[in-house]
Task: structure prediction
Amino acid sequence: MAFLITPRVLGHEGNGMMFMESLLALLLFVGLQQTLDECLHSADTAGRNDPVGAERRLQECLEQYPENITPYLRLCALYQKEAKFAELYEVALKGLKRFPDERRFYLAVGVQAGREGRCSQAVDVLSAGYERWPEDPGFRKYLVDAYQCRGMHRLDKGDNGEAVKDFTRLLELDPNNISALLNLGRAQHNMQRSSDALKTFDRIAALDPYTPLIHFHRGVALYSLGLFDESIETLNRQIAILPTHAKSHYFRGLAHYYKGAWQEALEDLTIAVEGLPHSSDAVFRLGRCMEHFGRFKEAEDAFIRSSRLNPGDVRPVYALGYLMARSGRNDEAEKFLNRAIELYEKKISRHPAGMSFQSIKP
Result:
C-alpha cells in the first residue's frame, strides 16, 4: 500500500490533521514492530550459547507484547527443545486463550495434559482441535491417546460404563486398536455384558490371533455365558502357551467345577490358589473340591481362609457351619450358620466368579 500526499490534502486543515494522526500511528506501529523484532533477535542471539538467557529474553518479549503471537510460539519451541514440558504447557495455555485460532496451542496443551494424567482435559482440548482441523493427523493420533488414558483411568476406578464410552469413541477414530478393544471387552465383562465382551474378544482374535492372553479373555467370556465346554477348550490353548497363568487355571477350574468334573477342578484350583493367594473365591472353590473328596480338615482350613479374605461373603461361612454340623460340632455349627443368616440378610452383592478386570496398558 502506497501513501500519496497531495497539495489539496495538505491545504485542508481537517484532512491535514487526519493525515498527521495516521502518519503518527504508522510510525508508532513501525517503531513497535522494530522493537519487537529487536527483542526477538536478541533472544535468538542469546539462544546460540545461552538457553537460559534466551528464555528470559523471550519471557520479556511476551510480557511487553502480549498481543503478538510470535513470542508465545518461540517460547513454546524453546521449552519443547529443552524438554521443559510443564513450562511449555503454561505458555501454550496462555496462548490458547489469547489466540484460539492457532492449532499448535491445542496440540501442546492437550498432549501435555495427557502426559500429566489430566485425561479429561486432554480429551476436551484435543476434541475441540479435531473438530476444527479434522484433516490434521496429529489431532486424531493424540485424541486416541487421550481417550485411551481416560478410559483406562475409568476402568481402573470401576466406572465401567464411562470407560465403555471412551473406548467406543476411540475405536471410531482407530477401529483396529487392539489395546482399546481389549480394555473395552474387559469393561463389558465387568458390566456382565458377556455376549458383547465375547464379540469384542472375537474381533481381536480375527485382527491378531497372537494377541497376548486373547484365549484367556475369550475363555472367560464363554465361561460367563455358561458355555463350559467351549470355555475349557479355549482356556486349554491359553494354558498351553502360558502353563503357569493362574487366572486361566482359575476359570478353567470353575468350568470343570460346574460340570461336576471334580478331579480336574481340584487340580486347576490348586494351581490357581498358588498364583492368586488373595482370591477368596478361588480358595473357597478349592475347599469345596476338598470337601467333595472327603478331605474335611483341608476343606475347613480353606473355608476359614476364604472367610478371612472376604468377611462379607456368606458362602464360606455357611460351608463351615454345614461342615461342622456334619461332624457333630453343633455349637460351632450354630454360630457359623447364624452368622451366615446375618450376612445373607444384608444382601451382600458380589461380582460373578469373584473377579473383575482392570485396564491393560498398551
Q: What stands out?
A: The chain is about 75% helix and 0% strand. Residues 1-14, 23-34, 348-352 have pLDDT under 50 and may be disordered. The radius of gyration is 34 Å. Residues 108 and 145 are 14 Å apart (CA to CA).
